[in-house]
Write a structure and sequence with these properties.
This is CBS domain-containing protein. By secondary structure, the protein is of the alpha/beta class. Helix content is 36%, strand content 21%. The chain contains nine helices and eight strands. A hairpin with a 2-residue loop joins strand 6 (167-172) and strand 7. The longest helix is centred in the C-terminal third of the chain and has 16 residues, at 144-159.
């Protein structure tokens, strides 16, 4: 089987964190110094209990529930605008991901939760990383050379066991073109399906002929 990249492959492992009692000035300083838009808040054992985002900081700075001054009757939002510590400012409960999640699953979770990043936890619920939208997109922004190497090494070599040079592989802007011979007709759709499963591949053009060995 092809190795499908997971959250663990793309997440950031060195995560800037906050304690619940961290004061507002510390939150702003950490965001600025580390150029991050959100910071997980963890308890004494290292489990995430919330996330403070840039939008939470803006609520505080404007003194309003949000930067546009909407949702003025939302007492929770007004509480964030008056917050002085991370525990009062953070969004909670926190939505988390697991390192073994597939990239599509993490992407769906980000979309469904309307968030831009997810803390990643281990089997015990302790923070081990953070994954963002840009991290997930990086899987699909691969060089043509990387894709070609994976097609030749994994699909044609390791999985199908074809001799080197039997199939020529060309990749342009993620589109894979295959030219050459395969031992049996049934292998053509198999090759196409495997290539389509490689991260970063946008299309597969299989110009293959089935030539049975005598």
């Amino acid at each position: 089987m092809l190795h499908r990249r997971t959250v663990g492959d793309v997440m950031t492992e060195e995560v800037v964190t906050l304690r619940p009692d961290a004061p507002f000035h510390e939150i702003v300083s950490l965001m600025d110094a580390n150029d991050v838009a959100a910071i997980p808040v963890v308890d004494d054992e290292g489990a995430p209990v919330g996330v403070v985002s840039a939008s939470d900081v803006l609520r505080h700075e404007t003194g309003m529930p949000d930067a546009q001054g909407q949702d003025g009757d939302d007492e929770h939002a007004w509480g964030k605008a008056r917050a002085r510590t991370a525990s009062a400012l953070m969004s909670s409960p926190v939505f988390t991901a697991r390192a073994d999640w597939t990239i599509p699953r993490a992407a769906r979770e980000l979309r469904d939760r309307h968030v831009k990043q997810l803390p990643v936890v281990d089997d015990h619920g302790f923070l081990i990383g953070i994954v963002s939208r840009s991290d997930l997109l990086s899987v699909f922004v691969r060089s043509d050379d990387d894709i070609r190497d994976e097609v030749e090494r994994e699909v044609l070599g390791r999985i199908l066991g074809l001799e080197e040079g039997t199939v020529e592989v060309e990749v342009r802007e993620g589109a894979v073109t295959l030219r050459g011979d395969v031992p049996e007709p049934r292998l053509v759709p198999v090759v196409v399906g495997l290539c389509q499963g490689i991260d970063g591949v946008v299309a597969v053009d299989a110009r293959l002929e089935a030539v049975r060995a005598e």
